[in-house]
Sequence to fold (501 residues):
Amino acid sequence: MKSTDAIIIGAGVGGLSAAAYLAQAGRGVIVLEQDRHIGGTAHVFRRSGFIFPTGPQSVTMPGYISDSLCELGVGPPCFIRDCFQVRRGSMDVMISVPLREISEQLSKIFPEEQKGIMAVINVLEEVMTALDVLKPEDLIEQAGTTNSAARVILHWGSIPARELVNSHLHDERLKDLLGSQGTDETEMSVVLLAQMWRFMSKEGIWYTRGGICEVPELLAMRVRAFGGEIRLGERVERILIHAGTAVGVELSGGARIRSHLVISDADYKETILGLLPHDVITADKHEEITRMPLTSSAYTIFLGVKRELVDICAFRGHHLLVKLKEGKPIPWELKRPIPEDFLQDEIWLSWWSRHDHKLAPPGCEALIIKVTAPFDHFAPFSGGGNGQHCEYYYSMKEEMAGALVSAASGLVPGLPDAVVVREVATPLTYKERGHRSAGSVAGWSWRFDDFPGQTHSLTFTPVPGLLMVGLQSFTRLFYGGMGTSLYSGRYAADIVLSGTE
Ligand SMILES: Cc1cc2nc3c(=O)[nH]c(=O)nc-3n(C[C@H](O)[C@H](O)[C@H](O)COP(=O)(O)OP(=O)(O)OC[C@H]3O[C@@H](n4cnc5c(N)ncnc54)[C@H](O)[C@@H]3O)c2cc1C
Fold:
């Protein structure tokens, strides 16, 4: 049995970050990744000359990402600011601009609501200013912070954003836009909402030139340069326990690697409920973890289109969030594969190749269409994790894609006939290829009631010697998805290097 200082399960951004910081400090690390590529969900795929992202489309906190990479001895990638637009009826607003500009745009459309718009924006700015001065360490369980910024966060963290928008605004479109940055009803706390606006309007949301895989690839380069080992195509089947403590892992081929430190970048529920022996945690803990709510999943269509056949002048930036008809979205279990059943959804359209002409062949454009989709609707069609789903699943997925593309043509005329490449990802894809419980795309639930109070770290697990990293190792994505994953690796490495694990 081989032995090492630390075993890292998963070569996503969180796992590679932990590995890089530990290897830089001279610790022996072995990263075991079940896929044959680096980066986990932060990866790209190619079809007939088009390049699409498998998961994240953009990053937040590029300054933090750049500083971390520099700390690890490598130059950061080039980031390009993403531009977001929301359209709903006569409302057409650019939202990736300073809040004051958003308020001007909205006050022109809703002159009678000017006072309410300013009241909401003043609160958002107050919380954003507090967030500017607080570091993640201050936000995590509010460790010892009693300054005025911490008090602002404590206060607004206990108030749902719905309460804020309802008390100042009347028009539902306005409430949804300021409360969710789109066309959906807001569900988060005021602090989380301000965090989102801080990313959108102040710090920016950014595309990574060269693809979203650049950051994990740079991390992997540093892991290897510091002497760490990364093994692709190696699935960890279980975590070995002796006297209640993690002592290594067993791979799917049966080989074992011994270590007194196992760091998992895998899905949290999968790690605790799937990789640990059943008797290691109590029945109560098992139940509690099973119930922990996640963000929902998505239904995504990746399109390669002929430029001359499609009219994309509706786009003023890279991303366009649109609700084509007023009313509540038709639930997935009632949706028929007809365009009308998608008109009330929030449809997220991305003009993907606008970032870089290399993302599509000459004369073509790459587009992405995304809507929220619940895992439970797709779960019954699963083939049980072996990738072979029921026949109905494949026809339903394609028919729904046809309907959604037709719905989107209300804004992008010519779309259905311009398509030369079409790939679809459903919640089952995000579960089986993305390896995330219930195909969840953005960590733990963002709903106000689900994780009330402050940000908690889940780095420590019920098992000594087993730490968690990755986007689910904190209850809030304070640096966005990838930024938080990167931070989680550093956070876990600091615990190990200070000997407090
Ligand atoms: C559709 C989608 C859209 C997203 N959009 C954004 C976005 O726009 N911006 C953003 O910042 N974030 C986004 N995210 C979140 C994104 O996942 C994170 O930002 C970040 O890349 C996650 O990194 P991670 O290391 O935490 O986890 P992952 O990327 O999930 O990596 C975990 C790794 O562990 C491996 N693994 C799991 N189990 C095992 C095992 N038993 N043995 C071996 N290896 C194992 C997996 O194969 C995977 O490679 C999105 C995610 C998805 C799925």
Summary: DSSP finds 17 helices and 21 strands in the chain.
